[in-house]
Amino acid sequence: MSACPAAVVIGTGSHLPSRVVRNTDAPLSLLETSDEWIRSRTGIETRRWAEPGESTGDLAVRAGQRALRSAGVERVDLVVVSTTTPDHHSPATAPWVAAQLGLGTVPAFDIAAACSGFVYAVAAGDAWIRAGAAETVLLIGAETLSTITDMSDRGTAVVFADGAGAVVLRRGTADEAGAVLATQLGSDGTQKDLAVIAAGGSRRPDAGPDARPDAGQAAVQAAGHDARCLRMQGPQMFAHATRRMTEVSRSLLGAVGWEAEDVEAFIGHQANQRILDKVADLVGIRPPGRLGNIREVGNTSSASIPLVMDGVVREKAVGAGARTLLTAFGGGAVWGAVAMTWPDIQPVF
Amino acid sequence: MDMLDQRPLDFITSYLAQAFGVPQQELTPEASFSCLALDSIAQVELFVTLSDHYGVHLDDAHATGSLTLQETADLVEAAIADSGAATERTAAVPGPGAATERMAARG
After folding, report:
1. Is the dihedral of CA A287, A20, A269, A234 positive or negative?
2. Which of A126, A168, A251, B81 is an S-S bond match for A71, by CB 3.0 to 4.6 Å?
3. Which stretch of DSSP H or E encloses residue A63?
4. In the beta sheet, which residues pair with residue A81?
5. Which residues contact A71 (CB under 8 A, 6 or more apart)?
6. What is the rounded distance in angstroms from the CA atom of residue A267 to the CA atom of residue A155?
7. Percent of chain A with pLDDT over 70
């Protein structure tokens, strides 16, 4: 038996806002689209949106509570929140979440890696644990993408959603069920325009008009509104996401010595069902192992993978020790993958 | 026939019929993606699939609605040819050892 130290997943949790939005509900029903169009192009039937005033931190706290309860721990040594929709530009969301969870003065920070945030968080938590800097780590992926979505933009309004998922890592060994065996991350900053919020950062602090001065008041106002919302180049995103998740998945499988057919649980970032299917096809993942929730939950960015993980734990759909591959791609561009074994966790309701 | 031996045009028509349910009789070389009512995502998906299948780089900027199936196949053929030429160029470049030997012979 190997005694190689490893981070081990010992608890999962999730939380979704109560508001369910179907493809036929307003404001989506006002767009030039249809239920059939949305289903066939994204795989999404419903999604959850937070109520006004319900923040990413609020969702993260609920998911974190459940993950801590699932793990049976009351203290951790580190809290990491991955999000692209933090409560504030500053401070980070993680310290507030840690305080709400009663975790005292624990180290806490955010990771901003768009839809790849959770795999980046796993890599960070794994590194802290293997370096001996932490015994237990709480990782939370949480998003309120509805707050950065232009509800008149068909390409993003039908896709993005809100939610939070969390896992607890504990220092253990690589032969335990739930062990993180390897991670690989990557980025390509030349592709930053694939998905971008133009205003609000130091490059363009205000969301002021970006339209031509002679464009008219309505166009000027619309430009200001647009600049605060996430813009995505759909086809280009599809191409880059598919290629990068395929490449990193193949590379990681090679690193851990697994064949694609060995993978019993595959969870890709729930971006779009067509991307997920294509990546799984190209990598060679067998259909029974392809796990997801995009039909009911939509694209929740960095929350999507831990949301699926918690759902699978609740359904007991995967056996402890099953060979598991996680992969994600997000704006930046950033991507990554995690090879692990499925944790031995009893669902907590 | 090995899948890799399949001509790009045949691969393209087979893929579009299988993945998107395009009727076989509509899949002529002259048909454009717009004519076939295939959206931009479908076209990019085909490009990704072709790149992976033939192991070549295809520039997604070529993925426009007016592109025909024959033109798509031509892009793949050109990329395969480029790839082969690059491999031959690499093989023909003498390594450091060979350069040293020639210099020694001149000396």
Report:
1. positive
2. A168
3. helix A56-71
4. A110, A140
5. A10, A11, A136, A168, A170
6. 23
7. 94
Question: Which residues, at least 6 apart from A6, have a Cβ–Cβ distance to it below 8 Å?
Answer: A126, A129, A130, A172, A173, A174, A176, A179, A180, A181
User: Residues near A116 by Cβ (< 8 Å), separated by ≥ 6?
Assistant: A185, A269, A302, A328, A329, A330, A332, A334, A335, A336
Out of A41, A239, A246, whose CB is closest to B60?
Answer: A239
Give the global pTM.
0.89
Q: What is the pLDDT of residue A206?
A: 77
Q: Give chain B positions within 8 Å (CB) of A41.
A: 39, 41
Q: In chain A, which residues have pLDDT < 70?
A: 1-2, 207-225
**Contact across the interface for B48 and A278, Cβ inside 8 Å:** yes
pLDDT digits (tens, 9 = 90+) for A286-330: 999 999 999 999 999 999 999 999 999 999 999 999 999 999 999
What values do phi and psi take at A155, rounded to 5? Answer: -65, -25
Mean model confidence pLDDT for chain A = 93
Q: Ramachandran region of residue A104, left (φ > 0), alpha (ψ -120 to 50) or beta?
A: left
